[in-house]
Amino acid sequence: MLSIGKWLIFAGVGLAILGGLIWMAARTSFPIGGLPGDIRFEREGFYLYVPLASCLLLSMIVTIGLNLITRLFR
């Protein structure tokens, strides 16, 4: 139980840091959500937004970050 508690604390701190980074990126007009590969369909009474390029970029950033963290603790 002790190790589960430690992992939950680390996960909480990690989520708080991630939330802070997202909040700071939104305040500095970081272009996530408005990249050229994002698909938008707008019609009368209908709006569809598929953030394809943004998801790929965030996936690459998270993958690189997690690989660096696992190599650091190995």
Notes on the protein architecture:
This protein has 74 residues and is α+β, with helices and mostly antiparallel strands. 65% of the residues lie in helices and 14% in strands. It contains two helices and two strands, in the order αββα. It has helices at residues 2-27, 52-73; strands at 39-43, 46-50. The protein has a two-stranded antiparallel sheet. The longest helix is centred in the first third of the chain and has 26 residues, at 2-27. It is elongated and about 55 Å long. The mean pLDDT is 87.
- Report the C-alpha radius of gyration, rounded: 17 Å
What is the global morphology? elongated
Largest sheet: spatial strand order: 1-2
- SSE sequence, one letter per element: HEEH
> What is the residue-averaged pLDDT?
87
Distance between the termini: 23 Å
Strand content: 5-15%
**Which ranges are low-confidence, i.e. pLDDT below 50, for 5 or more consecutive residues?**
none
Number of strands: 2
Q: Output the structural class.
A: alpha+beta
Question: What helical percentage do the residues reach?
Answer: 55-70%
Number of helices: 2
Summarize the biggest pleated sheet. 2 strands, antiparallel
